[in-house]
Amino acid sequence: MTSKGEQAKNQLIAAAIAQFGEYGQHATT
Questions:
Q1: In sequence order, what are the residues at sequence separation of 6 or more whose Cβ sits closer than 8 angstroms to the Cβ of residue 2?
Q2: What is the pTM (predicted TM-score) of this model?
Q3: Start-end of H helices in the chain
Q4: Rounded distance, CA 15 to CA 1, Å?
Q5: Given this model, what pLDDT does residue 15 score?
Q6: What CA dihedral angle connects 14, 20, 21 and 27, to 10 degrees?
Q7: Separation CA 23–CA 29 (nearest Å)
Q8: CA angle in degrees (0–180, nearest 5) for 26-27-29
Q9: Per-residue pLDDT tens for 1-29?
């Protein structure tokens, strides 16, 4: 069972990873 804090943290991490993925693609070219 995840608390609301855990869910919010996971969403933030997921959003950060999504943005990082885009940056990574541009940076590694």
A1: 10
A2: 0.56
A3: 4-27
A4: 21
A5: 92
A6: 180
A7: 10
A8: 75
A9: 679 999 999 999 999 888 888 776 766 65
